[in-house]
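User: Can you recover a sequence for this backbone? Please restate the input before giving your answer.

Assistant: Of course. Working from this structure:
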């Protein structure tokens, strides 16, 4: 494990999420209590040892804001050669995902219930992740709230730290203005290049909601240069 010298200090200025008090069902409460020790990852004094956690070396994918986790569990089940780490702060979604995980009995997915920015800044080792997925993040549509959008230069700096050279960030959104915002941010990031690839993602409830509202779905992918300047 790294000594921590390459961690990025990222003081919290504006949160990109609001902890909603959604109702946690009895089943989800049981999952959070009984299943978390098997599939959940808690903060440690140093960075997470992913090889020890998964018991192997494999390409690794981080998904930020997995919602109810159904698409993430399905993706992990369909790609047993990959290891997945899902990050979500909302307890009903985490509980639901744990129930799905228990039913599928997967060994290649672990969950983190914590602020993603802090996880990227200090929990994950440098150059340890092959892909970061950000599917339908909160669009914060009002202009005065745009500063709350997670895709900002500081966030990209954290991705630059954890991604392996050649690693990929994949984003999906159903808000045209957010897609424009992402493109504006990424044009300033010379270490990342826009690429066209099959995202491999599965439809999420947020995507279905956007489609019901008549929104176009935009997929954006960016690859970190093999040699970061």
């Amino acid at each position: 494990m790294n000594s921590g010298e390459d961690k990025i200090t990222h003081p919290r200025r504006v949160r990109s999420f609001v902890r909603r008090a959604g109702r946690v069902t009895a089943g989800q409460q049981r999952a959070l209590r009984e299943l978390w020790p098997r599939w959940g990852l808690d903060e440690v004094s140093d960075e997470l040892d992913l090889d020890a956690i998964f018991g192997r070396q494999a390409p690794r994918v981080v998904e930020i804001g997995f919602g109810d986790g159904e698409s993430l569990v399905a993706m992990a089940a369909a790609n047993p050669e990959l290891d997945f780490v899902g990050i979500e702060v909302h307890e009903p979604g985490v509980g639901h995902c744990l129930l799905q995980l228990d039913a599928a009995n997967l060994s290649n997915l672990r969950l983190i219930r914590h602020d993603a920015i802090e996880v990227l800044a200090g929990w994950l080792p440098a150059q340890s992740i092959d892909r970061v997925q950000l599917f339908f993040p909160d669009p914060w549509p009002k202009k005065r709230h745009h500063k709350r959008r997670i895709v900002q230069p500081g966030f990209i700096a954290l991705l630059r730290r954890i991604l392996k050279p050649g690693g990929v960030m994949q984003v999906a959104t159903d808000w045209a203005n957010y897609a424009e915002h992402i493109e504006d941010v990424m044009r300033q990031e010379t270490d990342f290049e826009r690429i066209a690839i099959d995202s491999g993602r599965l439809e999420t409830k947020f995507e279905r909601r956007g489609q019901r509202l008549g929104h176009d779905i935009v997929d954006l992918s960016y690859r970190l240069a093999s040699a970061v300047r």
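That completes the design. The two ends are 24 Å apart (CA to CA).
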